[in-house]
Amino acid sequence: MPVRVIATDLDGSIVTYLARYLSGDYEQVWDELFSLGPAVFTAPLHDDALAVVRETMRRVRFNIEELILRLTRLGFVFGYDHRIRYAFTDHPYHAATWRDYLEFREWACRQPPAFLPASLHKEAYDEVVSWGLADVADDVLDGIESIPTQKANIRRLEQEIGPVPLAVRAWYEQIGAVNFYGYFDGWLKYVKFPTHLMSYCNPLQVAVLDSSLVDQLVHINRLGQNQRLEFAPDRHFKDRYAGSSTPHVIMWKEAGIDGELPPNPDPGMTFVKYLRLCIRWQDSLGCRHGLTFPRMISQCSQKVSYPSEPPQKAAMEIVHCHHS
Predict the structure, then answer these.
(1) In DSSP terms, which residues pair with 203 in a beta bridge?
(2) d(C-alpha 247, C-alpha 237), whole Å
(3) Where does the pLDDT of residue 154 fall: very low under 50, low under 70, confident under 90, or very high at 90 and above?
């Protein structure tokens, strides 16, 4: 596929995709790069496309961390403890109660954490060094080697199956694993037993890219013509609740800037468009489909602020937000 001319300014100078993206033309830039398919891996377009993807993921990470902060301040509790709590409401207890508790506890331990940075090892080491503790960094960070190195694992995956979409690579280089599953006591005003409310919220979740998942993806992708990456279960299985078992999957035949998600229920959905929707609806796609939730969700819909570093005007354009 031929690489088209990016754009020219009034004086005839070339305007890069990144420059247009930073100036606010982010959706059109993304759509244009997506339409180029595998050409984004060829020079001279590759460096520009990669810069756009990295800037996109920088903004996504900021918004994820900002939402975690805001939701926590509002009283939202990330994790699965509320499901265990409701398992203990029946009395007298039976052996089945404790069996169900242990099964659920084991399942919960296998779910992604609220956030696991892709480069946690390097970020933690740099932080310890900034404290002036470089000489004892290994002691301070003892045990961190057991945490998966997702940035290295995405590179290993590419070595095994070939190029993955730039957005997928950048996600696991700059962001990592995310899981917005949780609970808010205020929900009791709306429902008596909100044990499976998260299955309606369909919270944002992206799996930890550990070695076992890489092995699984390598096996799956060697069987079919189209490449695929299952990054989360469906909304019911996120909540350990009976459902259709249709996982969230990123698919591509030839890697480009982004991968597509299954067309049902959203034709034309890509991974980055999915992230836009999740962040716009404060991690819960269920809210987009007309479900009513407590005020805490609407409070988080206040426009997400943006870090002070350049570009100054760039309020999280991935979700159409500007400075509050």
Answers:
(1) 284
(2) 9
(3) very high
* Torsion over CA: 39, 149, 123, 56 (sign): positive
Whether the link from the prior residue into 44 is cis, omega within 30° of 0, is yes
Q: Measured on CA atoms in the order 234, 280, 179, 206, is the torsion positive or negative?
A: positive
Q: Are 305 and 324 in contact (CB under 8 A)?
A: yes
194-241 pLDDT, tens digit each: 667 777 778 899 999 999 999 988 888 777 667 889 899 888 888 887
pLDDT 10s digits, 50-77: 999 999 999 999 999 988 998 888 888 8
What is the DSSP pairing of strand 205-206 with strand 182-183? unpaired
Q: Is there a contact between 283 and 203 (Cβ–Cβ < 8 Å)?
A: yes
Instruction: Write the single-letter amino acid at 295.
Output: R
Residue 289: pLDDT band with limits 50, 70, 90 = very low
SS3 sequence of the chain: CCCCCCCECCCCCECCHHHHHHCCCHHHHHHHHHHCHHHHHCCCHHHHHHHHHHHHHHHHHHHHHHHHHHHHHCCCEECCHHHHHHHCCCCCCCHHHHHHHHHHHHHHHCCCCCEEECCHHHHHHHHHHHCCCHHHHHHHCCCHHHCCCHHHHHHHHHHHHCCCCHHHHHHHHHCEEEECCEECHHHHHCCCCHHHHHHHHCECEECCCCHHHHHHHHHHHCCCCCEEEEEECCCCHHHCCCCCCCCEEEEECCCCCCCECCCCCCCCCEHHHHHHHHHHCCCEHHHHHCCCCCHHHHHCCCCCCCCCCCCCCCCCHHHCCCCC
pLDDT of residue 320: 32
pLDDT, mean over the chain: 79
pTM for this model (two decimals): 0.82
At residue 257, the pLDDT reads 97
Spatial separation of the C-alpha atoms in residues 163 and 150, rounded to whole Å: 16
